[in-house]
Amino acid sequence: MVSNAPRLLQQLGQSLWLDNITRDLLDSGTLKRYIDELSVTGLTSNPTIFDNAISRSSWYDAEIRRQLDAGASGEGLFFNLAVQDLSRAADLFLPVHERSGTVDGFVSLEVSPLLAYDTKATVVQAKALHAKANKPNLFIKIPGTAEGLPAIEEAIFAGVPVNVTLLFSTDQYTAAADAYMKGLERRVAAGLTADVRSVASLFVSRWDVAVTGKVPAELRNTLGMAVSKQAYKAYRDILESDRFQRLENAGARAQRFLFASTGTKDKTASDTLYIAGLAAPNTVNTMPEETLVAFADHGKPASALPRDGGDAESVLAAHVKAGIDLIALAAQLQTDGAKGFVKSWTELLGAIESKSKVLV
């Protein structure tokens, strides 16, 4: 049974994106069905998703063999595969992209996580990947680390749409928003169009995983939501700021706020916890496939997130009282996230190397 929850969420003004991409998803017509039936209007990817798809299936074997015959290998071979998949997905979402006035219908491709702390190399690769795909609705994912912020500014200035990833707190989000606006301001000053799109991705569920067993039972699975609500208020504040409105007058569009990592990790909690609880206009929620299917099956229509963040501050204060250092934890989550992506990237390249040896 398919509920009308995805459609109602879309009507509220939130975009549902799928956090998954595999060749099978494309070849089987499943992604097209999700677009047609479950109101999916975009897609994100990461190294872990590709690693699982390549190492645990034969979907890519024929193409890997062709790439090897053409002389590709390692990272270059992977990006060839990823650009193929994401280009096909981008084409599926192109009608959404055009219908929404180019606000929605995006797919995302990540730069090498090995570059997370190398600003210059990140910008070079972001430009190269965007040019390689040559799709108007492709975001290049750049981490919102301290070193990533100037790369975000430079990429935006260069006209490359950016999905800022690995954000965990309001402070990290506002720093990413500042980098975005700096890039746009430089474009305006240079006489260039200010219409370069971006999303800022706040990771939600990892907060609750990090404090499991460290806070009272009544606070269980409330921290990720509270951080999200606080950051959402900051997002709304930025959209209403004089600074952004000046950019808007010059042709800029909002850097949309995106809730990421919204699959429920606690098996005792609702499997749609971070979907029903984070319904917010002019935002995106990108979710794992099983979460999307669950929400379509038994999700409940949600009420809009309060403009002022609702109970965010009181819940955050309760966590501080329970001994949680929120600033230190946000920094740790971002560092751990970057390390996790590097690990997945290394495993991905290892999987490609193993497959290559077998296929050769």
Protein architecture, described:
The protein has helices at 5-12, 23-27, 30-37, 47-55, 61-69, 74-99, 119-133, 148-157, 170-189, 205-210, 223-239, 242-249, 273-276, 289-298, 312-321, 326-359; strands spanning 14-19, 40-44, 107-110, 138-143, 162-167, 198-203, 256-260, 283-287. By secondary structure, it is of the alpha/beta class. It has an eight-stranded parallel beta sheet. α13 (273-276) links the parallel β7 (256-260) and β8. α9 runs parallel beside α11 (223-239) and α11 (223-239) packs across α15. The longest helix has 34 residues, at 326-359. The chain is globular.
Largest sheet: 8 strands, parallel
Order of helices and strands: HEHHEHHHEHEHEHEHHHEHEHHH
Q: What is the overall pLDDT average?
A: 95
Radius of gyration of CA atoms, rounded to a whole number: 20 Å
- Portion in beta strands: 5-15%
Give the topology, please.
Layout: H1 5-12, E1 14-19, H2 23-27, H3 30-37, E2 40-44, H4 47-55, H5 61-69, H6 74-99, E3 107-110, H7 119-133, E4 138-143, H8 148-157, E5 162-167, H9 170-189, E6 198-203, H10 205-210, H11 223-239, H12 242-249, E7 256-260, H13 273-276, E8 283-287, H14 289-298, H15 312-321, H16 326-359
Parallel strand pairs: 1-2, 1-8, 3-4, 4-5, 5-6, 6-7, 7-8
Write a concise synopsis of the structure shown:
The chain is α/β, with parallel strands linked by helices and 360 residues long. Helix content is 55%, strand content 12%.
Keywords for this entry:
about 350 residues
